[in-house]
TrEMBL record:
Major subcellular site: membrane
Protein name: ATP-dependent zinc metalloprotease FtsH
EC top class named in words: hydrolase
Gene: ftsH
UniProt cross-references to SMART domains, sorted A to Z: AAA (SM00382)
Originating species: Tepidimicrobium xylanilyticum
């Protein structure tokens, strides 16, 4: 550093001298007339060489990777978010849980008088798209705190010590700018369980994170919020009280929450009077907040495409189909024979679903979308958290009804039931291994023991699936005329909505329900 300063001082003196000598060439003075031309050239050349040397020394290449000399973490946000709890819909219980943390940051003195300490860490876990990041920003917005964002992958490097250094830098900044909130998204990237095969660099990074979270001074109001989709991967030392004191599950919203989320995402959109947010919430069972936001956006895009001034229920229905079933194929090259097979396949699903009342059929279509040649949009009448053995069995019967219809009508089966078989087998496996709903009795079998009893479990799963397939064939055989009517209507119109399906059912008096 001293050498560079000395070079800079000499350079300044040389530039001044060179400038004076250059001006003397155009405006001669008696005092400088004795300096010869050769000496002037020497001074000018020396100044140029010194200038190049100084510039080169200031941009010399690093001998170590630049990532080691970088004190800052990329993509960090110092902004104070303008998001508040008003922008977070459908998570009332979680917002109420977080109010204490917000109150502590805003009025910490009354808690300290009682000897209470602020939770050092809050961990949000749950499926993707449910609002974990939005909640963290809302907490920062409500407390007017500095919000420091980092993703777990930013701490992972191949150079030993880099991740730990970045963790230190992040937490030093958080303490300096307290009150602050440190949000680490996808924390399982650095917080996964340590073992003999784990990476040394990742272990050092995790160790540093553990030290920083457990080493706060009591007067510093710094909260760490983590988010992950895989709670089971996190190290136990990270989950203990004193680090992440509170674990909050952020799951898929229920019907009321979906209604509130849709209201938030449609409040700046011109809606037609035909749009009923509650009906849309009923049709979107099981979707996350991100899915609902996407549906609202897709509906607006479709309305613009149709040159509409307002968004109608038609655009929302099309958006739901776009999100759930995929992109519609405009010019499909489906053979007539395949089209007829798909029609009976989907008609089988729709007929059995309506007879067994497993779910409400919203739409049946044989218009190809994504990788599917046809689909049935269905949703439950209300949110369910507990299912009986009979209801699970009815779901299996409904899933297998498509293949059963193919066999009943064409005396052969196709590859179109692959996804149905996967879903039906998964339900049957959970009934045997998790729910104790089989002849094996009330027993739960974990993944490690499945391989030891594979043949026994496979036989039990097959028994359940065979029974479901047999019941599906029986229902379709007893209602074959109705099946043909639905399939013929599909071939003619390509899609049937719930009202049209209801009218078809009314033509036939009391179809026989044979699932007993």
């Amino acid at each position: 550093m001293k050498r560079k300063s000395l070079v800079f001082l000499i350079l300044v003196i040389s530039i001044i001298a060179s400038t004076i000598l250059l001006l003397d060439r155009f405006y001669p003075s008696s005092g400088l007339s004795e300096i010869k031309t050769r000496n002037r050239l020497i001074i000018w050349v020396f100044t140029i060489i010194l200038l190049f040397y100084y510039i080169k020394s200031g941009s010399k290449p690093q001998l170590v990777p630049s990532v080691l000399s970088n004190e800052k973490i990329a993509n960090k946000e110092k902004d104070k978010p303008d998001v508040s709890f008003k922008d977070v819909a459908g998570l009332d219980e979680i917002k109420e849980e977080l109010q204490e943390t917000i109150d502590f940051l805003n009025n910490s003195s009354k808690y300290k008088k009682m000897g209470a300490r602020i939770p050092k860490g809050i961990l949000f876990y749950g499926p993707p798209g449910t609002g974990k990041t939005l909640l963290a920003k809302a907490v920062a917005g409500e407390t007017n705190s500095v919000f420091l964002y980092a993703s777990g992958s930013e701490f992972v490097e191949k150079y030993v010590g880099v991740g730990a250094k970045r963790v230190r830098s992040l937490f030093e900044r958080a303490k300096k700018e307290a009150p602050s909130i440190v949000f680490i998204d996808e924390i399982d990237a650095i917080g996964s369980k340590r073992n003999l095969e784990s990476n040394n660099e990742k272990d050092q990074t995790l160790n540093q994170l553990l030290v920083e979270m457990d080493g706060f001074n009591t007067h510093e109001t710094v909260i760490v919020i983590g988010a992950t989709n895989r709670l089971d991967l996190l190290d136990e030392a990270l989950l203990r009280p004193g680090r992440f004191d509170r674990h909050i599950f952020v799951g898929s919203p229920n019907m009321k929450a979906r209604q509130q989320i849709l209201e938030v995402h449609t409040r700046n959109k011109p809606l037609d009077k035909s749009v009923n947010i509650l009906d849309i919430a009923r049709k979107t069972h099981g979707l996350s907040g991100a899915d609902l936001a996407n549906i609202a956006n897709e509906a607006a895009i479709i309305a613009v495409r149709k040159n509409r001034s307002k968004i109608t229920i038609e655009e929302f229905d099309a958006a739901i189909e776009r999100v759930l079933a995929g992109l519609e194929i405009k010019n499909p090259t489906v053979l007539l024979k395949e089209k007829k097979t798909v029609a009976f396949h989907e008609a089988g699903h729709a007929l059995v679903a309506k007879l067994l009342k497993t779910e409400m059929v919203q739409k049946v279509s044989i218009v190809p979308r994504g990788q599917a040649l046809g689909y049935v949009l269905k949703f439950p009448e209300e949110d369910r958290y507990l299912l009986t053995e009979r209801e699970l069995m009815n779901k299996i019967i409904t899933l297998l009804a498509g293949r059963a219809a193919e066999e009943l009508i064409f005396k052969e089966i196709t590859t179109g039931a692959k996804d149905d078989l996967d879903k039906a087998t998964k339900i049957a496996r959970e009934m045997v291994c998790s729910y104790g709903m089989s002849s094996l009795g009330p027993i739960a079998i974990d993944e490690q023991h499945i391989k030891y009893d594979y043949e026994l479990l496979r036989a039990e799963i097959k028994r359940i699936l065979d029974k479901g397939y047999k019941d599906a064939l029986k229902i379709l055989e007893e209602n074959r005329t109705l099946l043909n009517h639905i399939a013929d209507t599909l071939i003619e119109k390509e899609s049937i909505d719930s009202k049209e399906l209801e009218q078809i059912f009314k033509i036939y008096e009391n179809p026989i329900d044979c699932a007993t």
